[in-house]
Specification:
The complex is a heterodimer of chains A (342) and B (228). With 342 residues, chain A is α/β, with parallel strands linked by helices. Chain A has 11 helices and 14 strands. In chain A, strand 9 and strand 10 form a beta hairpin. Chain A is elongated. Chain A starts with a strand and ends with a helix. Chain B is globular and about 60 Å long. Classes of the chains: A alpha/beta (342), B mainly alpha (228).
Chain lengths: 342, 228
């Protein structure tokens, strides 16, 4: 279990991470999500004890990372963002060095290294120098380094960046498999990835938590409107008038004019009201044939952008308010000075 | 700590650095062996070790130490060791011991000079042994300086230049004022070569090393707060 309490990280006047609070339960896979520069890596670096928070505490399985450093670090397998590897070592040498650093007992080391190499699909390249590996393999070596020593908690910083689609699927499956035995935290700015693997998502923006929830709930929460996509054959071009016939439709726009004589429309309605039934009833009466009707899903992507935009607007308006109040103060002061002179 | 020592030592010889350092030290040794023993027909090896400590270490120490922390910082591999359950003290000492290992190899090879001298005349091995003990101590001091230089930058070249500058400057600084004499580590390597183990010299070298090892650890500790 990981507990992050009131964690803040400041660099001079710049606040990289601002008062984070969250807990990750045992065996949970949690995604840390946010645009670049949101403070994901900083948060992870603090969790692993690589940097110290300015304020707050982090405990891993009950061990405080600053006070019981050694015990806390022993619980963690960390895969840093830029996959740093020792280029002069072979894959096997690297993994066994990591095993030694993680205090794996000598008698068990060889066996453990072999199992990890097998698990991460590195057996064939185990005698190659890490510098000669392709990006995908390097990533796996880094992952193997995190896995060795069987730590309870895995912290993976953007594990799938720079991989091809096939490799992404492989790594994803590996993480899913690992999630059964370990507590996993992954950071990413790719949403589809997070929504497929993670049970819970923490969205960060500008160093603050914007939302913590399951991917499904986040999608649901940010859904403001019901969007339908309907493809019709409409010879008499009656579709634009439909809006008058079904009152619940708020907006109706043509999206595509297909070459086969069909047209696709986007219909937006109130989220509480479902216009599908009335569409099926009324359109045929108007001589319009429905070819396809589907709900346009709001993806996590939309949710994410919405949440991030919201916070940005908030801080912008705050900043504006600040400058406003400053101006007002200045004016007041000026007035006061004038008054004094008079 | 054993893990760090083993890996670092291996890395020296997986890259050319280990061979270069051993080579340079042996080259300098051979030159001074020729100048101080062969040319003069002397069986006294004391000045040989003195000159190697003076000229050899100024070149060898920076090469040996420049990548220690600078490279790890640049490549990000420091993230791996600093998030592992191992203390900064052990990391620093482990790296120091590994670097010293390369010097010890050179010293072992340098027994060859003693063997050559022995072939011509019988001489005592004691001054050679004290020279070596002293050489190890002065090497630790030089490595500590280099290590500190490497910990404050991520550029290996700069680390090397700082080390060379420090070691060179310290020799000349005492001419300006004798206050600086204690900064010059070669001053603590005058009695060892003549077969005398001097406590003052040991204390001088050890305390010098402790200061720079301590500073290195301090830098590493502080960077935990300052780095992004």
């Amino acid at each position: 279990m990981i507990e992050v309490k009131n964690v803040t990280k400041k660099y001079g006047n710049f606040t990289a991470v601002d008062n984070l609070n969250f807990t990750v339960q045992e065996g949970e896979i949690v995604g840390l999500l946010g645009p670049n520069g949101a403070g994901k890596s900083t948060t992870m670096n603090m969790m692993t004890g690589y940097i110290e928070p300015t304020n707050g505490s982090i405990s891993i399985n009950g061990y405080d990372i600053l006070k019981k450093t050694k015990k806390a670090k022993k619980q963690i397998g960390y895969m840093p963002e830029n996959v740093p590897l020792y280029s002069e070592l072979t894959v096997k040498e690297f993994v066994s060095y990591m095993a030694e650093l993680k205090l794996v007992k000598r008698a068990k080391r060889k066996e453990e290294v072999q199992t990890i190499l097998k698990e991460t699909g590195l057996e064939e390249v185990q005698n190659k120098l890490t510098r000669n590996l392709s990006r995908g393999y390097k990533q796996r070596v880094s992952m193997a380094g995190a896995l060795v020593g069987n730590p309870d908690v895995l912290i993976l910083d953007e594990p799938t960046v720079g991989l091809d689609p096939k490799q992404i699927i492989e790594i994803r499956n590996l993480i899913k498999k690992l999630g059964k035995k370990h507590t996993v935290i992954i950071s990413s700015h790719i949403l589809s990835e997070i929504s497929q693997i993670c049970e819970r998502v923490i969205i960060l923006n500008q160093g603050k938590i914007v939302a913590i929830d399951t991917p499904e709930n986040l999608e649901e929460k940010t859904k403001e409107k019901n969007v339908l996509l309907v493809t019709v054959e409409d010879k008499e071009d009656k579709m634009p008038n439909i809006k008058d016939k079904i009152k619940d439709i708020q907006e109706l726009d043509m999206v595509k004019d297909n070459e086969d004589g069909t047209k696709q429309y986007k219909i937006i309605s109130d989220p509480q009201k479902d216009v599908r039934k009335s569409l099926f009833e009324i359109l045929p009466k108007e001589g319009i044939t429905i070819f396809e009707l589907k709900k346009a899903e709001i993806t996590l992507e939309d949710a994410f952008i919405k949440l991030v935009d919201k916070t940005e607007n908030k801080t912008d308006s705050k900043a504006e308010n600040k400058t406003k109040s400053k101006k007002e103060k200045k004016e007041k002061n000026k007035k006061a000075e004038k008054g004094g002179k008079e | 700590m054993w893990a760090i020592i083993k890996k670092e030592f291996k890395s020296y010889f997986l890259s050319p650095i280990g061979y270069v350092v051993v080579g340079i030290l042996l080259l300098v040794s051979s030159i001074f062996f020729y100048l101080t023993s062969v040319q003069t027909g002397s069986v006294d090896l004391s000045s040989l070790y003195y000159y190697v400590a003076l000229y050899g270490l100024i070149i060898a120490a920076p090469i040996l130490t420049m990548r220690m922390f600078a490279e790890e910082r640049k490549n990000g591999t420091e993230q791996l060791i600093l998030t592992a359950p191992i203390s900064i003290t052990k990391v620093v000492l482990g790296k120091l011991v590994a670097a010293l290992g390369v010097i010890v190899i050179t010293l072992l090879i340098s027994f060859g000079y003693y063997a050559i001298v022995c072939f011509f005349a019988k001489t005592s091995i004691i001054p050679v042994l004290t020279s070596m003990v002293g050489f190890i101590l002065i090497s630790i001091a030089a490595i500590s300086v280099g290590m500190f230089a490497s910990s404050i930058t991520e550029n290996q070249i700069i680390a090397a230049i700082i080390t060379i500058a420090f070691l060179l400057m310290s020799i000349f600084l005492e001419n300006i004022n004798t206050v600086f004499a204690n900064l010059c580590i070669i001053n603590f390597y005058e009695k060892f070569p003549s077969g005398v183990v001097s406590l003052t010299e040991i204390a001088g070298l050890v305390s010098f090393s402790i200061v720079f090892i301590g500073l290195t650890m301090l830098v590493m500790q502080r960077r935990k707060v300052s780095r992004s």
